[in-house]
Amino acid sequence: MAEQGRAPVARTVLQQCLRARLQVKPAGEASDAEFVQIDRGTVIYICFFKGATDDILPKMVSTLLNLRLSESDSGKMVSVLELPGSLLIVPQATLGGKCKGRAMQYHHNISKEDGLRLYGSFVALCEAELTAVASAASGTQVKHGTYGNRQVLTLDTNGPYTHLMEF
Description:
Layout: E1 10-17, E2 19-25, E3 34-38, E4 41-48, H1 57-66, E5 70-71, E6 77-78, E7 86-91, E8 98-100, E9 103-105, H2 112-133, E10 142-144, E11 153-156, E12 162-166
Parallel strand pairs: 4-7, 7-10
Antiparallel strand pairs: 1-4, 1-12, 2-3, 2-11, 5-6, 8-9
Helix pairs in contact: 1-2
């Protein structure tokens, strides 16, 4: 989706899932670990690069949520909006890495402050889009990880149906 001749400002990886569980807060001395979970739907891993602005977010949300990546009961490929399905959004700064020698470098990633702001706006737009098309009885939900934290993910899928998209 990144235009020809222009460096991408965001990279996403989409993975269909039957169930996904993400740790959003590790266990502490006085507290248990906290998790979010979705059933059937899509996991979106997202990373923003330097130069990313709010302008790209509506296009990203529309494209990602309308891609036909999930198989319906009839065998037809449908989007997460058509399932209806849930979303789990995972901030993933490592998607911005470039190999240099035997190490990864992340010089092209956006600053943490700007990345956190864009990530929050992206999550809010996804929530609004999914809420607009889902009925209350459908059970769809948008869950998300914690920006800037290492998180533990458990994923059940019916196949490694993973897609990379750049914007």
